[in-house]
Amino acid sequence: MMVTGTLINLYHVCKRELWLHANGVRMEHTSDVVTEGKLVHEVSYPQRTAKYEEVRIGGSVIDYYDSKAKVIHEIKKSASKEEAYVWQVKFYIYLFEREGIEGVVGILEYPLLRETQQVVLEDADRKILDRMIMEIEAIVEDEACPEGLSKRKCGQCSYFEFCYSGESEEE
Description:
alpha+beta; Lambda Exonuclease, Chain A; 5 strands
């Protein structure tokens, strides 16, 4: 199986969503939050399309890559899942290194917040990513779907109705 940046992100957000996504259960098309995020990506930096390119590497799609400066630009709607986003960008840098491209850095961009955050891959991060990849592979290959998070944490998730259908409101 091929681990992608999306799976690295979901590893930090929800193991159940990770398992469902990797096993072909996709609910993103039903989510207004996902649609809003795509819109932010499309309209925030219109000049970038001419200047930088979207890159596909190791099964992952990187929003924008400046090949001259060796900078990955990843655009996010909010910083609510910042740790997941940071590891997603670290994974992208890791993929570039595996292809022999050294010295790549990342920038997380939050256009609605007008904030950016630089991301670098440290030596210790490579070992953590290797472990994460093994854990993701084990989760995805398991026949059983992992338990969901508490309902409170899942309100904006595109899988919410899928995970909690049939449960009463009091639960």
